[in-house]
Amino acid sequence: MSDCLFCKIIQGDIPSDKVYEDDDVFAFKDIHPKAPTHVLVIPKVHVPTLADMSDEAALGRLMHRVNHVANTVLQLEAGYRVVLNVREGGGQEVFHVHAHILGGKKLPF
Ligand code: 5GP
Ligand code: ZN
Prior knowledge:
- This protein is of the alpha+beta class.
- It has two helices and five strands.
- It has a single domain (5-103), classed as HIT family, subunit A (2-Layer Sandwich).
- The site of zinc ion has 6 residues, from helix 1.
């Protein structure tokens, strides 16, 4: 989608600190980290919110890649948190689905 910030990041039109990429997802460091490790995992296909995702396989792929990035790429052995903010009421500010991976310290809840 032409005016989407995260689509521009995927295309390389806006620079990012990439940590992982494959055919399905792109993962990069959050510009305002809320933990020592804060990475966003986004599907390459533009979908505005988690609530707009109904395809079971696509949902499974996204969570599979979140797991891969957290465990294998970032090696967050001590643990991590995965956050998906959904729509304005859920605190979503960028309307291209993204999973936050937060780790690197003990996270209060
Ligand atoms: P949301 O509140 O939509 O769940 O999270 C959006 C996230 O995107 C925020 O944590 C914010 O810091 C991050 N973000 C916004 N603009 C940029 C950007 O241009 N580059 C990067 N790397 N992260 C961004
Ligand atoms: Zn997009």
